[in-house]
Design brief:
single chain, alpha+beta, 2 domains, 9-stranded mixed sheet, 3-stranded antiparallel sheet, 10 helices, 12 strands, XRE family transcriptional regulator
Length: 363
């Protein structure tokens, strides 16, 4: 199933999608606003400003991604109220349609801006994940250990329903981040790799590492090459949650560890600890390395969401800018709360959410 391409302006294309994409399904601006509000509040006046025939505004990248997701599958309008499906619920064909439509919309938006169109307010500050040099970006995840893959359906290449992504660790964080980076960097090549499939050229791109030292050996290698304030202690011994160890100037050590409820039959994660780091890529100082690394998968997802979640990303990006300024390399060790199994995005404006910062604030 392919999404027919339109012509003309971005505003015309957005109107055509709403009115003509499914001619037998009436879709109002209010319907779209309600569906889009599942991710971030939207309104009819906002939608109207994007479709305006007079002086249309250019939607920010995450809104273009919402359009692409909504119109990639008819399941979006299967029943009222219409809804925006999570990315992990889209089929492979729907994912392809979404990417084709997203590329088209992003291209239309970029063309209007290049031709002197008024920038959307969000464009003046495109956010943390925008790389203005247009060089390649590589997101690196680990592959699940063999014993875990063997227990999962569709993770065996010999199976007719084999799905390669089922073999990836931190898949939710990867999906969250890949779409966000693609939307913000439409002219950059954005790849994702499992650590074992990295090639030489990948190491000299902008690197984004997801997951910790237990499974992702690229994270392990990079953490040995960059100046970090903490060392990750892996979950390598039975019943040990691991953590991040800080060596103090006096030689003592403190371990920042996850909190688990061990009172029942199973351990329940209540709070993870995750490391965020941005600095020069040690293999190419003209590129960057970013590490998003929790002790558990939900910690990794939480630290990713700190800079992708529409409710917190601007606030957290602003905190990093105000706190670290033009510092080349900096780190935040953060709490990631887990409530009823769900990740709560950390708010770095709250001191209690930050366990450690580096460089330290001047005394």
């Amino acid at each position: 199933m392919a999404v027919p391409k339109g012509s003309g302006s971005l505003a015309q294309r957005l109107r055509a999608l709403r009115k003509e994409h499914w001619p037998d399904v009436p879709i109002t601006q209010g319907d779209l606003a309600e569906a889009f509000s599942e991710e971030q509040p939207a309104s009819v006046p906002l939608l109207s400003s994007w479709e305006s025939r007079g002086k249309p505004k250019v939607p920010p990248p995450h809104r273009l991604a919402a359009y692409a997701t909504f119109f990639a599958t008819r399941r979006s309008v299967a029943e009222r109220p219409y809804r925006l499906l999570p990315l992990d619920e889209l089929t492979a064909d729907e994912q392809r349609c979404r990417q084709e439509l997203l590329d088209e919309l992003v291209g239309l938006a970029a063309g209007e801006r290049d031709n002197g169109g008024a920038p959307a307010p969000d464009e003046r500050d495109r956010g943390f994940w925008y790389f203005d040099d247009r060089h390649a970006i590589t997101i690196v995840v680990a592959q699940l250990p063999r014993e875990m893959r063997e227990r999962m359906p569709y993770a065996d290449p010999s199976e007719p329903d084999y799905v390669e992504l089922y073999t990836y660790a931190d898949l939710d964080a990867l999906i969250e981040l890949h779409g966000h980076i693609r939307a913000l960097n439409p002219r950059s090549q954005v790849n994702f790799r499992i650590a074992t499939e990295m090639v030489t050229d990948d190491y000299t791109t902008h690197l984004v590492l997801l997951g910790g030292v237990d499974w992702n050996f690229v994270t392990r290698e990079l953490q040995e090459r960059v100046d970090l304030p903490v060392e990750q202690v892996g979950r390598h011994r039975e019943c040990e949650s691991g953590g991040f160890s800080l060596r103090r100037p006096d030689g003592t050590e403190v371990l920042f560890a996850p909190r688990l409820d061990k009172s029942g039959d199973r351990e329940v994660l209540l709070e993870d600890v995750a490391l965020f780091h941005r600095g020069p890529n040690p293999f190419n100082h003209r590129r960057t390395v970013t590490i998003c690394n929790g002790m558990y998968g939900r910690g990794t997802l939480g630290v990713v969401r700190a800079l992708t979640d529409g409710r917190f990303r601007d606030r957290n990006s602003r905190y990093l800018e105000e706190r670290f300024g033009d510092t080349d390399a900096y780190s935040v060790l953060t709490r990631v709360s887990v409530v009823n199994g769900l990740v709560v995005t950390p708010d770095w404006a709250l001191p209690d959410s930050r366990l450690l910062e580096w460089p330290e604030k001047p005394s």
